Every structure is written in structure tokens, then in C-alpha cells.
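Pasting as-is:
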Amino acid sequence: MFDSRVATAVRTALVAACIGTTGMSVVSACSSSPSPIRAATTSPAATSGSTPTTASALDSGIYGDPAAAAKYWVQQSLEDTCGLASVADVVGEVTGHTPTEGQIIKVAQNTPSSIRNGPIYLPTGDPGHETEKGGIDMADTVVLLDHYGIKSHMTYDKHPEEVGLSKLEEYLGADRKVIAWVNSGTILGSNDQRTSADHLLVVTGIDTNKEIVHLNDPYADYADTKVSIGTFMTAWKIGQESITVTAAPG
């Protein structure tokens, strides 16, 4: 999951390539290195525009339904499948049928990437799994969700009107699903690096009364892990507040 092998110089070059672009992609190799920024991160008919939050969410201060989402949690069994496990989780939340990790790996290995040459996920046994080429690009979460008939949109902090805590509350309160790119060391409270985002997970709820964020974290030992809002925001900001959010239901 935690792969910090990519050189800082490479990361710097990739960040420099971001300037002037309109979209973004990041590596979900559960890795510390962002890939080159790209556009085309929205599936047809999906936007991250304003969606009415349910009255119950506004009244209770609880956004999303983490208890319902917990049964769709998918645990990653490989170092670089946090992105695939997160997509499988969202597919389950939306459709009621969760692909296994093996099933979604097969789909990703047979689906062209929207970002790089070749498939979304490298063939089994490819040595690239041990490098920055491992995992998937975050933009390809949109492609994979679309494969399962789920429209979604990827965005980040260059579009502040689409991200931030209040937007997460809005999305979750409107029954939209959110995959976030975060720094795992911050989420876990571990001694791992705290300077680069390196992990994808599913945000399933925000409880403003208890000041906690609910997560279906593929790296965790169980569903519905919880962190403080402050901890989550710190981890998420390291990842430029990058998210993939599904289209409004209906």
C-alpha cells in the first residue's frame, strides 16, 4: 500500500506538468507519486454541481449512511489495489452488488486506461507493480465506474467550488458516493511520510456532532473506520482535495 520509492525529482517534474491544465489524475498505486495531470475525468452526464442535501441530514448533522455502506467495504489484498477496492466498494453501494477484488482486477486489466498506454491495471506478475507504474490512475476510477453503469466526476482543489468539507457534506447528504485521495500516514496515525498523498479510500459519512469522518478504507482491518474531521482534512489536503464523486441519483 505505501510505496514511496519514486524520486522527488520525478514528482517535481510531474507537478510542473500540471500547470495550465483543466483536469487531474493521480496515481492510486497506494503510492506517493502523482502522475501527469490530464483532463477528461468526467463520464457523460455526470457533474459535481450542486445537489440538494436531504432534510434529515441537515437536521441530524449526519451526512451519508456509513452503517449501510459498511457491508460493501472491500479489503485490498495487494499493495497497489486500494483504488480498485474503492471502486468495487462504490459499485456495491450504488448497485447492491459488489465485485470481488479479483473480478475488478480482471476488468481493469482488460480496460484501456484514459491516462497511460495500456490497461488501467498492469497484468499479474508485471514487475511494474513494484514501481510507480503500479496501481491505477485516479482518473481511471471514472472509467471503471462507467463500466458498471455509474456516472462520476473527478475534481480537485483547482476547482474550489467542487471540493471542501461543505461540498463533501452536500454530496454525501444527497446519497452521492465519494472516493478520496489522501495521505495514509495521516489517516492511520503512523510514522509513514506525511508529504504526499498515497492512498484511495471511500468516504461514507460525516458526523458534524461528533466531529468525525466515516471511511471504508481498503487498507483497514474492518469497515467503517473513523477519524476526526481535522485529521481527514489534513490528509485530504495533501492530496489536493482530490475526489471522484458519483452523479446524483435518479
